[in-house]
Amino acid sequence: MSESRPGPDLAALRREYGDRGLDSPDLATDPIEMFRGWFDDTVEAGLHEPNAMVVTTVSADWRPSARMVLLKGVDERGFVFYTNYESSKGHDIEANPAVSLLFPWHDLQRQVRVEGTASRVSREESEAYFASRPRGSQLGAWASPQSRPVASRSELDELYDAAESRFAAAEVPLPPQWGGYRVRPEVVEFWQGRSGRMHDRLVYRREGEGWSTVRLAP
C-alpha cells in the first residue's frame, strides 16, 4: 500500500489584503451603475475573463448546484447569460427561478454577489446574441446535449460533425432549446478586501422602485 503524499497546509494559505477601502460615499446611486464602474476596472486591469461568474441554482428537490458561466449583458433590467434550456441549470431555473451570481475578481481583491430571480429573455434577444457567436460555438449549441450523459468523446465529436454537415451550406439558426436568462437583482453586494480581514461589504437591497444600502460586518 503506497504512502499518501502530504498535501498543502490549507490553514497556512493566506494573503494579506490592502487598504483600498469602500465606503458609502463611494457607492453609485444604483447597483448596476456601481457594477459597471467596477467591471470597467477589471477590464482596465487586464483580468482574464472578467465576465466569468459563478451561477448557483437550486433544483426542485432543493439541491444547490454551482458552475462558471459568462455574463453576456447587463443593464437596468439585470444580468444576462445564455445556456441550453434543457441543461441542469435550465431545469433548476424553470423549477425555482431564485439564483445567485458571484463575480470573483481576486486580483483586485473584490467580489460582487447578486441575489435575484431569473427569467428567459425574448426569443428575438436570444437570436441577436446567437448570431454574434463564432460559427463553431453555434454548431456546438446544436451538437451538445448539455448536462446529459454521453458514452465517449467520440460520440461528442460525431454529434458536432453531424451538426457541421447539417448546416454546411447555410447560416446556423438558433436552436429551439437554447437562449438567455436575465437575472433581476434583488440584492447586490460589493466586497472589497481590507487588512486584518476587516473587509468592506456594502449591500444594495431593492425597495420598491429604488434601493437602500447597508454595511455588513465581514
Structure explained in plain terms:
The chain has 218 residues and is an alpha+beta fold. It is globular, with a radius of gyration of 21 Å. Strands 1, 2, 3, 4, 5, 6, 7, 8 and 9 form a nine-stranded antiparallel β-sheet that branches. It has helices at residues 31-44, 88-95, 123-132, 135-143, 153-166, and strands at residues 52-58, 64-70, 73-75, 78-84, 98-105, 110-120, 178-192, 200-207, 210-216.
The unreliable regions are: none
The appropriate CATH architecture is Roll
> Outline, from the CA principal axes?
globular
What count of domains describes the coordinates?
Answer: 1
H/I helix tally: 5
The percentage helix is: 25-40%
Order of helices and strands: HEEEEHEEHHHEEE
Distance between the termini: 45 Å
Main CATH class: Mainly Beta
- Predict the CATH topology: Pnp Oxidase, Chain A
Biggest sheet layout: 9 strands, antiparallel
Structural class comes to alpha+beta
CATH superfamily: Electron Transport, Fmn-binding Protein, Chain A
DSSP strand tally: 9
Query: Could you tell me the mean pLDDT?
Result: 92
**Which strand-content bin applies to the residues?**
25-35%
C-alpha Rg, in Å? 21 Å
Short description:
This protein has 218 residues and is of the alpha+beta class. Helix content is 25%, strand content 33%.
